[in-house]
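Researcher: Here's the sequence for the chain we discussed earlier.
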Amino acid sequence: GSAVQVARTIDQALARGLRPHLSITVTARNAGSLPEAVAFALDRGLLFNLNFYREQDLESPFPALTPDGDRLIAALRQALAVIEERLPPYNLIAGLLDRVSLAAPHRYPCGVGHAYLVVGPRGQVARCQMELERPVTDIWTEDPLTPLRAVNGGFRNLPVEQREGCRTCPWRYWCAGGCPLLTHRLTGRSDRPSPYCRVYKTLFPEMLRLEGLRLLRWQDRRAQAAGR
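Model: Thanks. This is the structure I predict for it:
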């Protein structure tokens, strides 16, 4: 399948001195193989991030690819177990939970509607890569961000304090409520938590524990190396 071809291409890149950053999208079809994908990356010393699938068309005749919450949690726990067995010297915590960022507290999950735009192959400009079929303006506009910020229809990228179920959550400034477009598509509202909220809340403590173990292991190894 395509996975074999991708793996071969990555190994060819490594053989030529190129170190790709892997972006792994988790779907209902591949969630079970997530531990293998993570092991593949770790064995090659590659950075990676895990993205959760977002449905493009809810009326599509094809089977939905959004993973079930329980199955996704189970797959992520298996992936974390693989990481714990191979704790790397580099930080992975920033890329393990989709839209989550632990770099600094933040009120928005992304810059859509504020400081972000996507340019299509014909110069069309949209708010998000998932809305390229609905461009708002084009690259020939003097200031394309202004019309993007003025869009009223569709989803809104609200600050996390304005999202029900988020404003009192202790994790609110790390996920910022998750992808606003996905939330709007699945609930019809922009002021709700992410459909992946339970996944985030379940895995946050386990991610922090894993990062603590990683820091301790490599601190010990550095101390041992310095004492030689």
